[in-house]
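Translate sequence into structure tokens.
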Amino acid sequence: MRRSGRVVREVLDQLRTLVAPGVTTMDLERTAEQKIKDLGATPAFKGYYDYPCVLCTSINEEIVHGIPSEKRVLKAGDIVSIDCGAVMDGYYGDAAITVAVDGSITPELSKLLEVTEASLYRAIEAARIGNAVGDVGAAVQEFVEANGFSVVREFVGHGIGTHLHEEPQVPNFGTRGHGARLRDGMVLAIEPMVNSGKPGTRVLEDKWTAVTADGSYSAHFEHCVAVTKDGPVILTQ
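Result follows.
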């Protein structure tokens, strides 16, 4: 899983450098598909429940599962969430970043990205043997809401291993001490999805793209994290 995680990280690191005004989300898709192939892995998302692409690229009010397209051109002031998965030797890696298209986003959007990414690391710190899934979700929720943002309820993180989605589900909200107990060797895909407005969502006619119900912007960061006797280990670092 370290190997599949490294593939995903190398893809995301390269894509981050390509995000700029005038670039299409399909440009990012083509680069990612070639990079995954060059690294000797296979895409995790393409063909999954007939999903058509290697990446999910979600712009501004899009939360997750945005489909890359030649028609989606990045503009100054946009943010774009890039979610990538890869399979290596039968094991899955999955991670996501949200990137400012040109660095000139509003202070509120900068804070949204900072808070969302920071909430991920707070959740990772809670991914310890004996803790509950609720401790992980509460770590996200408490920090996000204290900073004036909201946590998406309809889409959650998940266990991951020889399948992309495994038990347990890992919500980005919860009550400390509640839910499945974390055991040595579990791997969780922890992925805060945070809205600048209210938490409500809806899915577009393409049956994939989830957007904020109120049109507010949304950010998404994700790591695969192993629960070990030595503490949480990030596999997509």
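Note: The chain has one domain: 2-234.
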